[in-house]
């Protein structure tokens, strides 16, 4: 039975059933004898095995109820067509010794595909191991490089040479901060449409001119200095929105997550001015306004959760009506007087429009839906504002 296929590409798997008791040499003899000459001399099994293009033929047998059942395995380094011809030739075997036999090819395995799968799986393991052991240090290096690059991206803008991100001219929106360090921090976290006042005692003309044609957000520190800068900005420039760092924090020290949260929770300039008016000259947040509710009403608000009900409140913070949320819009349309509405539901554009038309000053819900516009005479609050303050 000779040589071995040293570079097998395929393996032929076949089953054999014999109507009698035989041994392995009988089966192997039948394979060579009954396929001889079928496919010509070039595909003769004996010659192919001698040249190493067919490997050692393996046969496994078991005897059962006077019959012999077995498996045949043939490694092949032939091409695909030649290999399937050999597999088909096996099925022509109909005798082993004096007994009838039946051979059926069950499978032809592509060893190269199997190796490719093993290589891919092993490569995945190595990559995961590499990332787990080495990548944290690599990420740190990348972050340091990006930090340096972003610092370089800070430009001088306008006649005053104001610190700014590279997209101040390109973007339709503008974020105005207090100083250069604030600009660097925002640019580092991907906000490139930012410009600083540059430490000037008066608002630079460049800022005033930019604010006329862009949607502007004033983003200041959460201290007394930030409040004073904001007042000056609101009096001098066309500011659309106001965002503030958390109390006692400066914009230059905020994390990326904190910056995103502050900008997401920005309020309209008109709403901010309303907050100042309500706070008797002191700039206060929407959370502080919520906290001015009487304790009895705060308890009512907490009890609203899960009820799908709404409270209609007058300017003395007294509940004048309780209605199901499903009837809220129709009820508001019929109101003669209402100062605030607190309800267990989503604040929608439809409700905002109706409430603003009726002079409602505060609208408080579980969460805010997709609003395309917020009227300047109404403040939008959520139950989350209360829970965060507490």
Give the strand order of the largest sheet, numbering strands 1, 2, ... along the chain: 2-3-1-5-4
Sheet-strand content, in percent, reads 15-25%
The stretches of 5 or more residues where confidence is low (pLDDT under 50) are 1-6, 279-285
Give the C-level CATH assignment of the largest domain. Answer: Alpha Beta
Structural domain tally: 3
Distance between the termini: 87 Å
Q: If you compute it from the alpha carbons, what radius of gyration comes out, rounded to the nearest whole angstrom? A: 40 Å
Structural class: alpha/beta
Q: Total number of helical segments?
A: 14
Sheet with the most strands, sense and barrel status: 5 strands, antiparallel
Question: How does the overall form come out from the CA principal axes?
Answer: elongated
The CATH topology of the largest domain corresponds to: Dna Topoisomerase Vi A Subunit, Chain: A, domain 2
The CATH architecture assignment of the largest domain turns out to be: 3-Layer(aba) Sandwich
Number of strands: 19
Q: Could you estimate the helical fraction of the residues in percent? A: 40-55%
Query: What's the pLDDT, averaged over the residues?
Result: 83
Describe this structure in words.
With 390 residues, this protein is α/β, with parallel strands linked by helices. It has 3 domains: 10-113, ACT domain (Alpha-Beta Plaits, 2-Layer Sandwich), CATH 3.30.70.260; 154-283, Dna Topoisomerase Vi A Subunit, Chain: A, domain 2; 285-390, Cytidine Deaminase, domain 2 (3-Layer(aba) Sandwich). It is built from 14 helices and 19 strands. The strands form 5 sheets. The chain has a 5-stranded antiparallel beta sheet with strand order 2-3-1-5-4. The protein has a 5-stranded mixed beta sheet with strand order 9-8-10-11-12, sandwiched between helices. A 5-stranded mixed beta sheet has the order 14-13-15-17-19. The N and C termini lie far apart (87 Å).
